[in-house]
């Protein structure tokens, strides 16, 4: 059985092939049962989350991701997300590969946001605001840069030192990035705003968004967490990765529905519909679009299959 560590997983998931693999999987006959989502008490610390995410394409591949999210792991200099993905044959049950789950999650999450951006952000978008400076931040900046002609990046985080470090990491990766302490001003200037935080309170104010902005919300994956306020919902055309996930777990969608601000029918499309052309996505240059992602097991399956294939091709090449 193939075993891929963090570095091997990263090398096996280049952005453009990964975005294409996820797009293809959204149109495939992939079965994705509702994931198990369990809160785990951690004495004296923020509660952890254990995720179990299965998916399969009949007769092809099947797999499950076991992911542990411990918000206070930074106190121990450990990653917030720790996990593994087990990929098997869906014809014989043979176990094919074990893929490092944290890196797989980071890259497939960013690639899914970039895929949505291809349909929802303005084609000429040049400025991206990255809200959050964790593991996802650089991944999101790099992935979005694959689908839009982004020329500059601004990074904001509650911890100014982490924002500066993230911007430096982006510059080392040849992205023109700076950190900012003024989130409101940066949000009002950005063409694309990507949020990857565990915030329980809105960070982005809809009144600050300029016409044509695309808002990409990939953090706040629990009903009681949120990165955008009600004004963002009121001003935006709303899209999600999957209705089954976002309408149940994503606080940015769940909370507005709960108070009657947004109806379920107000979610215009999920990603599978966008990639199939129904609807087409962004309607005009001035439209504000909002994409809420909570993660789908089919994205992990697409990434794991690609990683397995790329690694085997590299070994024989």
Rg value = 19 Å
Q: Helicity, in percent?
A: 25-40%
Give the CA-based shape.
globular
Order of helices and strands: EHHEEEEEHEHEHEHEEHEHHEHEH
Which superfamily, in CATH terms, is the homologous superfamily of the largest domain? NAD(P)-binding Rossmann-like Domain
Mean pLDDT: 95
Q: CATH top level of the largest domain?
A: Alpha Beta
Q: What attributes characterize this protein structure?
A:
317 residues; alpha/beta; ornithine cyclodeaminase, domain 1; 2 domains; 6-stranded mixed β-sheet; 23% strand
Structure description:
Belongs to the ornithine cyclodeaminase/mu-crystallin family. InterPro entries: NAD(P)-bd_dom_sf, ODC_Mu_crystall, ODC_N. Helices cover 37% and strands 23% of the residues. The two termini are 19 Å apart. The protein has an eight-stranded parallel β-sheet with strand order 9-8-7-10-11-14-12-13, with helices on both faces. A six-stranded mixed β-sheet has the order 1-6-5-4-3-2. It is of the alpha/beta class and 317 residues long. The longest helix has 20 residues, at 101-120. It has two domains: 2-104 and 298-316, ornithine cyclodeaminase, domain 1 (2-Layer Sandwich), CATH 3.30.1780.10; 122-296, NAD(P)-binding Rossmann-like Domain (Rossmann fold, 3-Layer(aba) Sandwich), CATH 3.40.50.720. Helix 2 crosses helix 11 (297-316), helix 3 (101-120) packs parallel to helix 4 and helix 3 (101-120) crosses helix 11. It is built from eleven helices and 14 strands.
Topology:
Layout: E1 2-4, H1 6-11, H2 15-26, E2 36-40, E3 48-56, E4 61-69, E5 81-89, E6 95-100, H3 101-120, E7 127-131, H4 135-147, E8 152-156, H5 160-172, E9 177-179, H6 183-189, E10 192-195, E11 214-217, H7 230-235, E12 237-240, H8 243-249, H9 251-258, E13 267-270, H10 271-275, E14 289-292, H11 297-316
Parallel strand pairs: 1-6, 7-8, 7-10, 8-9, 10-11, 11-14, 12-13, 12-14
Antiparallel strand pairs: 2-3, 3-4, 4-5, 5-6
């Amino acid at each position: 059985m193939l075993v891929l560590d963090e570095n091997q997983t990263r090398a096996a998931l280049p952005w453009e092939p990964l975005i294409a693999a996820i797009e293809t999987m959204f149109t495939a006959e992939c079965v994705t049962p509702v994931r198990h989502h369990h809160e785990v008490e951690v004495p004296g610390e923020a509660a952890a989350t254990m995720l179990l995410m299965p998916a399969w394409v009949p007769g092809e591949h099947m797999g499950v991701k076991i992911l542990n999210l411990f918000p206070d792991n930074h106190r121990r200099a450990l990653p917030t997300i720790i996990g593994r993905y087990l990929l098997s044959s869906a014809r014989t049950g043979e176990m094919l590969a074990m893929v490092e789950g944290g890196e797989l999650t980071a890259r497939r999450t960013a690639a899914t946001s970039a895929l949505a951006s291809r349909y929802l952000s303005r084609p000429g978008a040049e400025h991206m605001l990255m809200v959050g400076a964790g593991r996802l931040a650089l991944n999101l900046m790099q992935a979005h840069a694959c689908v839009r002609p982004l020329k500059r990046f601004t990074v904001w985080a509650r911890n100014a030192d982490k924002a500066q470090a993230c911007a430096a990491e982006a510059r080392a990766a040849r992205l023109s990035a700076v950190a900012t302490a003024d989130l409101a001003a940066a949000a009002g200037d950005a063409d694309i705003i990507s949020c990857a935080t565990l915030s329980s309170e809105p960070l982005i104010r809809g009144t600050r968004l300029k016409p044509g902005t695309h808002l990409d919300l990939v953090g706040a994956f629990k009903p009681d967490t949120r990165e955008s306020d009600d004004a963002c919902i009121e001003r935006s055309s709303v899209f999600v990765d999957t209705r089954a996930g976002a309408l149940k777990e994503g606080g940015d969608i769940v909370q507005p529905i709960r108070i009657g601000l947004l109806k379920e029918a107000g979610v215009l499309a999920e990603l599978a519909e966008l990639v199939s052309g129904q609807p087409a996505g962004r309607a005009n240059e001035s439209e504000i679009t909002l994409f809420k992602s909570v993660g789908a097991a089919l994205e992990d399956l697409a990434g794991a299959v690609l990683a397995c294939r790329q690694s085997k091709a590299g070994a024989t090449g």
